[in-house]
Amino acid sequence: MIPNRRNFLIGTSALAAGVSVSVPFFWPKYHSVRRAKRSRVAILHVERYSQRIDQVLASGLRLFRIDVQGKTVVLKPNLVDYILGNAINTHPTLVLAAAESFRRMGAKCVIVAEGPGHQRDTELVLWQSGYRESLRAEDIRFVDLNRDELVRTQLRASFMGMRSLWLPRTVLEADFLVSMPKIKAHHWAGVTLSMKNMLGVVPGSRYGWPKNILHWKGIQESILDVCATIPVHFVIADGIVAMEGNGPLNGTARPLGKIVLADDPVAADTTCARLMGFEPDRVVHIREGAKFLGNLSPALIDQVGEIPQPPTTPFQVVPEFRHLYAL
Amino acid sequence: MAELSRRQLPSGGWAALRSSAQASLEPTCLATLATGSEDSDAERRTQDFLLRLQNPNGSWPAFFGDDEDGVWVTSLAVIALRDVVSAVEARLRGVGWLLECVGRESNWLWKWKFRTVDRHVRFDPDKFGWPWIPDTVSWVVPTAFSILALSQLPCPCGSLEDIPIRVDRGIEMLIDRACPGGGWNAGNGIVYGSALAPHPDVTAVALLALSNRTQHPVIQTSVEWLEHTAVTLTAPWSLAWAILALAAHGRAIESLITSLGTLPDLSGNDDTCTLALVWLAVDCRRTLAALGVNL
Fold first, then answer.
1. Can you give the three-state secondary structure of chain A, one letter per residue?
2. Does any CB of chain A come closer than 8 Å to the CB of residue B233?
3. Residue B30 has pLDDT above 60, yes or no
4. How many CB atoms lie within 10 A of CB A156?
5. Which helix (H) or strand (E) holds B24?
6. Distance CA B275, CA A195 (A)
7. A203 to chain B: nearest residue by CA?
8. Which region holds residue B192: left if phi is over 0, alpha if psi is between -120 and 50, else beta?
9. What are A111-123's pLDDT values in tens digits?
10. Which residue, of A127, A236, A302, B84, has the fewest CB within 10 Å?
11. Element (H, E) at B14
12. What mean pLDDT is predicted for residues B192-211?
């Protein structure tokens, strides 16, 4: 090609077009990196839901540097729906034990907050799942995130292509937010762990039941955007009786006998995924979250309590997620 | 009722929770239906609030300050303004928006997707209704309320001539999305081959929209399921909806109303929608008339 003005202009135009098309693929979709240098995860062995959880959890929490003195603590359990005999929801015994522990640690106020994704009658789910009586007995306030006051919130990542979401004030104003998932296989997301659990904060009164917009924008992408925007300060995952197969509602109960505590949601989900017999980096939101939200690498996670051992038989999943199995 | 009136905000609307000051459309519409003409000044303030909040495209937002694209509560606003002469034009614009608003599965591309590569949720994409928010698929509750709203218009002529088609299509969609043993949940009867359980409140709302199709076997099974379930309910929201639906289908509701009255601390309920709905259930004949359901 003869170097002349015309060819130079064509060449630079082509280069500019190529750069403008390809750069978005390489540019990070998150606005800031919140990953700690090191993370801490504790696995506690608990066979069943009983009063003893109180003591086990309190001693587990002492393995972490937690300062909730004078703070508002919001516990976000996984409370989706109630089907008799199905291990769908975070067990209320664990939530009460957590509330009691944080009160003892000096929290100004402990609130339990959730926006069930499937059932519009939150009060009914609270009654059926045993929450209502327990919360009343311990004088713990519950906030229905599906109907809470909403604040337009700029998203701090752009995986799903939305600039903002309306999010509940109670969660946005929390000083210390604790994600309390039920460890479950999930037929759309692969797993329900601490990061997936955060989709419960998206309000039904604005986005519907289920929060269908998140499915259309991509579940993995939605999880990343919500977790980028609402920092999870601590994780208490209920794996005493977990769920495998066709979760989040119709799976099979899977006794695992574990509670997982962590100061980092990515590290928590990495450990939980291993306990389920999965390769954590094959779960898209864990792999992508490890770039900016927390740690996936075992070298960066201080494991206290039990060492995570993969189960003899991995958790069952729907066929679309068999690639999650560790080799 | 006194507690409901006390919760009305200076703007004329009601907030979803007692502790909130953010006026929302669903509690406002339910409270409007519940208070009726109790207090004409309060009623005027509510009507002004509803008219003020209407979006330029004819829809209504979920709450004061929301985006202007419109959501499912448009159908509730159309119902709540049904007897307001000065709101005729606003209602017609709301109806116009409802006629434009369709579940995403009505588009040929998504129809094809749900027929071929995405078949985990069993449903017929030819039978579509209304979504909670635009650009998503149809769900049971918004479809049922839209059917109720559109069925209230006396003359489907001119720009409203599509109403009968949309209503019929919505009714087909509701019947298609029923759970295998009767009743409805959000709209997923069978997922990954497993039947999902129905929800009492959603079943009741669907049955209200289907109150003139009593002979259909799906509806008969659903009424029986709801009648059987209602006696076990301890949550006022679901029980109140069940009372309204069972009354619409000619079932006895006296003992259910008694049960509703004995639930603890009803007026202290944090949820304003529930508070309004309890009153609507107690006054069920007037409520059904307001919803356009003939007994």
1. CCCCHHHHHHHHHHHHHHHHHHHHHHCCCECCCCCCCCEEEEEEECCCCCCCHHHHHHHHHCCCCCCCCCCEEEEEECCCCCCCCCCCCCCHHHHHHHHHHHHHCCCCEEEEEECCCCCCCHHHHHHHCCHHHHHHHCCCEEEECCCCCEEEEECCECCCCCCEEEEEHHHHCCCEEEEECEEEEECCCEEECHHHHHHHHCCHHHHCCCCHHHHHHCHHHHHHHHHHHCCCCEEEEEEEEEEECCCCCCCEEEEEEEEEEECCHHHHHHHHHHHCCECHHHCHHHHHHCCCCCCCCHHHEEEEECCCCCCCCCCCCCHHHHHHECC
2. yes
3. yes
4. 17
5. strand B23-24
6. 34
7. B62
8. left
9. 999 999 989 999 9
10. A302
11. strand B14-15
12. 93
- C-beta atoms of B20 and A213 within 8 A: no
List residues of A whose CB lies inside 8 A of any B CB.
81, 83, 118-124, 127, 143-144, 147-150, 152, 166, 187, 205-210, 212-213, 215-216, 246, 249-250, 318
Which of A118, A205, A216 is closest, CB to CB, to B24? A205
What string of DSSP letters covers B139-204? Answer: -HHHHHHHHHHHHT-S---GGGTTHHHHHHHHHHHHHHTS-TTS--SSS-SEETTEEPPP-HHHHH
pTM: 0.92
pLDDT of A27: 79
CB-closest option in A83, A123, A150 to B197:
A83
Average pLDDT along chain B: 91
Instruction: Choose among A118, A120, A246: nearest Cβ to B192.
Output: A246
Q: Which chain A residues are closer than 8 Å to B186 by Cβ?
A: 118, 120, 209-210
**Beta carbons of A83 and B199 less than 8 Å apart:** no
Total residues found in chain A within this entry: 327
Instruction: Give the pLDDT band (50/70/90) at residue A22.
Output: low
When mean pLDDT is compared across A12-21, B99-108, B285-294, the lowest value belongs to A12-21
What is the rounded distance in angstroms from the CA atom of residue A202 to the CA atom of residue A208? 9
Q: Is B24 on the interface with A (CB under 8 A)?
A: yes
pLDDT for residue A93 is more than 90: yes
Exposure string for B29-46, b = 16+ CB within 10 A, e = fewer:
bbbbbbbbeeeeebbebb
This model of the complex carries an ipTM of 0.92
Cβ-Cβ contacts under 8 Å for B196 (sequence gap 6 or more): A249, A250, B179, B185, B188, B189, B190
Quick one: tokens of A261?
Answer: 């505590």
B192 interfaces chain A, CB cutoff of 8 Å:
yes
